Amino acid sequence: MKVKKIIAITLLLFFTGTMLTGCLPGTGGGQLPENRIIIAGKNFTEQDVLVHIMATLVEENSDIVVERRGYLGGTNVVHEAIVNGSVDIYAEYTGTGWTVILGEEPIDDPDEIYNLVQEGYDVQFNLRWLAPFGFNNTYGLTMRPEQAQELGIASISDLQEHAPNLNFGCSHEFLERPDGYARMNEYYGLNFQSVTGMDPGLTYAALRDGAVDVIDGFTTDGRIPAFNLQVLEDDRNFFPPYYAAPVVREDTLERLPQLEEILNRLSGRLTEAEMARLNAMVDLERMRAETVARMWLEEEGLLP
């Protein structure tokens, strides 16, 4: 009986301690210590670079400890994570926020769309858009220049006549987005011979190597100039502006108000050319995104 009683008391103490420990910040109960945040990114190179730029800037200019979660998933996955409190910050694009998350019709004016996503995210999700980084990473249908020249294709409208004989490759997300494949085809009257969804990191090599004829390129991707690819003119302005900016939970800013001032130091500093250069260092020169991010911050004089 004594042995049973000792075992029962031991188990009671163990489970009580476990329950109490689970309620403590940062020990598995789902609540981070006051000075810890999580910065996440989507599943492509540029987003990973931005995760490390934001995280390094914050850590080097404050006592805030940052957990980095690059390549967390696509737009909907990362958005859901910040809404439910699994992450505190990520970088989003105005056109994506407006059309994919808020479900609105595309708008051409970059200032108008930024103001509208600011308001929409605040009202619907209690999230705040901070100042944009400076670059517009819009979609650009991309081809091999020799094939485009042979067929006389310079714009997306020019594709209409030739699309039935061309193979289209794109990210899986582009196939599902409201500002993506289906709507673009309807808008421009395209009907490709075949459509292949793939990892966004594979599309450029697939185009270069002739596996597909047209892809959904990102205009800040360093592989476009490196592989000598041609971006077609969006002559009917289908794609909205996609200016990137940090998106932060309001309760995180209430807990750590210095974050806004620190992250806003990035405002307007990253041009399209600069972002493409940083992306190329990772994709082509095989440098680590964290190394590239720190190098750029040092070049900009943003580290103490």
TrEMBL record:
Coiled coil: none annotated. The lineage of its organism: Bacteria, Bacillati, Bacillota, Clostridia, Eubacteriales. This is Glycine/betaine ABC transporter substrate-binding protein. SUPFAM superfamilies: Periplasmic binding protein-like II. InterPro entries: ABC_Gly_betaine_transp_sub-bd (IPR007210). Gene3D superfamilies: Osmoprotection protein (prox), domain 2, Periplasmic binding protein-like II. One of its GO terms (cellular component) is ATP-binding cassette (ABC) transporter complex. CDD domains: PBP2_osmoprotectants. Residues 36-299 form the ABC-type glycine betaine transport system substrate-binding domain. It comes from Heliorestis acidaminivorans. One of its GO terms (molecular function) is transmembrane transporter activity.
